[in-house]
Amino acid sequence: MNIESQLVEKSMDGDLDAFEELVLLFDKKIYNYCLRMTNNYSDAEDLAQEVFLKVYRNLKNFRKDSKFSTWIYRIAYNTCIDNYRKKRLKLLSLSKIDDDQQEIDIPSPEPLPEEQVISSEKYRLIKECIADLKPRYKSAIILRDIQNYSYKEIAEILDIPIGTVKSDINRGRALLRKALKSRLIEYGERRMK
Amino acid sequence: MDCKVFDEYISLYIDQLLDEQDKKNFELHLNQCSQCKEKYEETRELVSLIRGIDEEPLPRGFRNNLIKKLERSQKINTGYLLRWLGAMAGIIVIFLSVKAIKDTRFTGTIDKEMLPIEGVAEDMASTDSAVEEFAHDDMERGSSDMVVMEDNYDSGEITALDENADRTENTDGIDEGIMSIQSDLVEVYVQDICITPHTLILMANNHGLELIENDGDSVVIDIRDDEERSILYRELSKMGEVRDIGENIGSNEVKIIIKSKNE
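Structure tokens for the assembled complex are given below, as produced in the milestone run.
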């Protein structure tokens, strides 16, 4: 039995010290997941804490035949979705990327003004673009490209068929590619002025 | 391979999940179509950019705050257990008293002045809900020791909920003390045969909860936040014994099945 399973077992028996050790294994990952889902430090902190409290209160519902890491991410996803729904009106009005929106017509093939964009600015833009995606796409992208989960694990976490994971990741990346391109052009134009 | 299929395969190619044949066809198209090649290059760069996003450190005090909340949560639970035991002892005394009163009616041998709460005790003999009402009444009169008894949602066990404890121990808005539906599957064990899925639909309408599905035997309700989880718990627990048994915690879709207590 690996250390994670041992800690889960002890935590389920009411051992708070064991649960605290379990927290140490996952807190940074869950916090970063929430941070990329919201792109807001304060929200991410509150959400990550809420996730661990929910996990602690619901340990008795955890089935030992499933993976704890999958379970905790699913709770994190649901918690972030709850938060998203609370803020959805605001988000909808601000969102630049929306699946229902018509595809943005990019007036390229001019080369991207990448050389004008310093690296940190590029990261700031991509984080914004990720946060603006619909939850299902951004969750798939975060789990795959930032947290390095396999398609199969993502299917388990999000409780969706693997075919949906494949199409969500591809669609998410396509939306991000267009959104980033558009923002880089905007950014370049602002710098030219 | 045409451009449309190529489009669908870009991510699978980057993640090395295409089989040999599809991979060959993909590469063939890649070298023939400049537009698709550009799209592929941009996606590859995008993925490497995303993968380069650094993991951020935890905010200062994150772990300490969390551990404090967890300990408080555990303390409250332990507190409930102790209060529950106290309350159970109280109830046993009351039941014995009531029994004694009833016996007295037949035998007339017990001195009524010895009974602790004679007036209310008779009302309490029959049901749990009566116990709950009594506890509420007493609390309104200012008794700080009295606890409210509620059926726990997961296993039929009983948890004591001390409202005063909530006010003092739970100052930062954590909902340890507030009972709410947590998982995606709930069974409600009812004695009243008049309670049906239709009752659930009416309840959902009354509280502005969105109904997603109704298959005649069960309903699925859309739950948006913790407040709605609490409302749902409160309303279901009025109908019967609530068992929150789903595996998916915090799901927005909660399926509710009505079951007879005699099943």
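Residues 62-151 of chain B form one domain. The radius of gyration of chain B is 29 Å. Further analysis is deferred to the final report.
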